[in-house]
Design the sequence.
């Protein structure tokens, strides 16, 4: 089993941080690569972020919090 | 001169590798796996593949920040491209240049620039050097439609024509300068028509048809190599992912994007290859699988590589970093 880190992506060239608006799957649930995973807001634009891998999701990020680009907010455990 | 079967297959291999690299970078950036910036070249592969096929190893190429496809075509190893984008020591510029600043003189790639219109004057200088040294190499410079509105482009085109320099000016007209459509920035409809002002041939070609680009490019290269001077080659194309990766593309009419995607050079050339019997479906499937595997291997190696050490901060900047010129 390998762990795929879930990070705040760089959805635009000139952004340094993003707000985690929503988690779209529950803690411990199974996702497939590409499934909608969470929503972030940068520069008043919301972006839906897909899963980068298939597996079971565990969250460490908190909705409403603002994070630097690249911050790990969870992990997908690949089986 | 018709393009032989082997060359057609090579064009497809290059286009597929360019697309595979773009797709993988896009997926990685979108999910937060890769924290780099990227100006996507998806949609413009036919032009870069033609350059890759037609340029000799000793010919030179200059490109822009939207240069992933051009770099792959000219033979820059994927590891050095990905390594540079991700800030690793294995990058073409040892991880200190970033996406916009990839050069590899051993492959003939002399410059990637982040400044719109900055390539042509440098190409003119390289071509002048080749001419004065009696070399028969050609310098090709790749740029977008917006670059042809800059003063540096016009100065370079004028000098290249005046001195009959071995240059091919390759305009990858993707119909937008950053977020501005071409018709909002130039009165002429065809970039190629600008060549008339400098006394050089101006050719417009379907930039989504690699065989059409190859045919025009070969003529331009022959003319340049034989002392006939420069050509402005306008290749009409489109970029599918906007200006930068993550660009919401709200300024692009949906119908225009749909029409451009319907003219995607990859499936179109694939159909040509199978329809004319140059390759079988199975052979093309193998080419695509091999490209994806190469991209995955290179990306894994780049991610595993170390970033540049702080000791290298001043190296490769000035010859003497302690007493650098003012």
Sequence:
């Amino acid at each position: 089993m390998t762990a795929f880190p879930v990070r705040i992506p760089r959805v635009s060239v000139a952004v340094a941080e993003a707000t985690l608006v929503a988690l779209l799957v529950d803690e411990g649930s199974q996702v497939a690569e590409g499934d909608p995973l969470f929503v972030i807001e940068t520069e008043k634009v919301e972006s839906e972020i897909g899963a980068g891998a298939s597996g079971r999701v565990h969250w460490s990020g908190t909705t409403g919090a603002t994070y630097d680009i690249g911050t790990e907010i969870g992990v997908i455990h690949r089986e | 001169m018709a393009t032989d079967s082997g060359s057609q297959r090579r064009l497809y291999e290059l286009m597929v590798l360019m697309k595979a690299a773009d797709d993988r970078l896009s997926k990685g950036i979108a999910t937060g796996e890769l924290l780099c910036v990227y100006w996507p070249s998806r949609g413009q592969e036919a032009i870069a593949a033609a350059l890759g096929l037609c340029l000799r190893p000793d010919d030179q190429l200059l490109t822009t920040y939207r240069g992933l496809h051009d770099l792959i075509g000219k033979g820059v190893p994927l590891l050095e491209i990905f390594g540079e984008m991700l800030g690793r020591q294995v990058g073409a510029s040892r991880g200190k240049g970033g996406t916009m600043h990839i050069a590899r003189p051993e492959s003939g790639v002399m410059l990637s620039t982040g400044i719109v219109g900055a390539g042509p004057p440098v190409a003119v200088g390289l071509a002048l050097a080749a001419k004065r040294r009696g070399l028969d190499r050609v310098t090709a410079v790749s740029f977008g439609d917006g670059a042809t509105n800059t003063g540096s482009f016009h100065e370079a085109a004028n000098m290249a024509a005046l001195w009959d320099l071995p240059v091919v000016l390759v305009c990858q007209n993707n119909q937008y300068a950053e977020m501005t459509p071409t018709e909002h920035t130039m009165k002429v409809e065809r970039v190629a028509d600008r060549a008339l002002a400098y006394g050089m041939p101006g050719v417009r070609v379907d930039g989504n048809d690699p065989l059409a680009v190859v045919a025009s490019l070969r003529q331009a290269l022959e003319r340049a190599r034989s002392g006939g001077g420069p050509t402005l080659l306008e290749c009409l194309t489109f970029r599918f992912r906007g200006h930068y990766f993550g660009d919401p593309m709200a300024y692009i009419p949906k119908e225009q994007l749909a029409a451009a995607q319907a003219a995607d050079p990859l499936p179109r050339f694939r159909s040509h290859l199978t329809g004319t019997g140059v390759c079988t479906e199975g052979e093309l499937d193998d080419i695509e699988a091999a490209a994806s595997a190469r991209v995955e291997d290179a990306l894994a190696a780049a991610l595993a590589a170390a970033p540049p050490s702080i000791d290298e901060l001043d190296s490769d900047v000035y010859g003497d970093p302690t007493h650098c010129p003012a």
